[in-house]
């Protein structure tokens, strides 16, 4: 049976280690022996399934139950390759619980796409993920409490790709991106804070310098609803999106249509005198119906020609 103690801290947190060490000693560490998966996890999965909140598709497929090691795992995992009806793909197939999928769909359609359209004039078409289900401690620290990742109830987001192929990276863009990139990433985080119960972006701690962590952990309730953790606190004043003209996009040029209107070049006859030439000509020569009498002169034409010939002979040379 796996045992998980108080979280350890990174190399830069020696004072915190001393505090944690003291608390661990008080708790005796063995007090953090999770023998059973908290009941709320199963309830959340089953409620989501009962409400039919996830629909199987080319992008979302149910997967077999994951049991352990320890209390890691989930009863009804899904393999997810795309969100919002496949309008946004993931760069990797992620394993998620039922509850995470509609929350992510809402994030894509209600937060990401409006922000991307306003700030870049184009939608997000791909999300760069950095992990979902993983039986591990918080922040990958051995001995730490289990992360929500250990239950498929979390995802890490490393960046976004726009329709043009432009990439917005959390690591490079959070502080180093241009004004609109920074604002877009902050809007993505702030919007996530209304949909997920834990959102940790760069600046929340040293572990989240390159991704946004989002999960649906149960932190308890307050008088205002579910308790949420959202770090760093969303910025209130973000730069305005750039002004876009309101003219509709010009229609794409239809090259096929242009060629048709210009007329196709007529096929050129090709000479061929090799074997089977007669058969070739019979099939390759354009079919033209010729009146068999068309090469004969009429009576009146013949009379006119005779008169002209007579006149010409009279003139002499
Ligand atoms: Zn994470």
TrEMBL record:
InterPro entries the UniProt entry points to: Extensin-like_C
Annotated region described as Disordered, given as residue ranges: 234-303
Extensin-like C-terminal domain location: 47-221
Protein origin, superkingdom: Bacteria
Signal peptide residues on this chain, from the entry's feature table: none
Biased composition (Basic and acidic residues): 293-303
Entry-linked Pfam families: Extensin-like_C
Name under which the protein is recorded: Extensin family protein
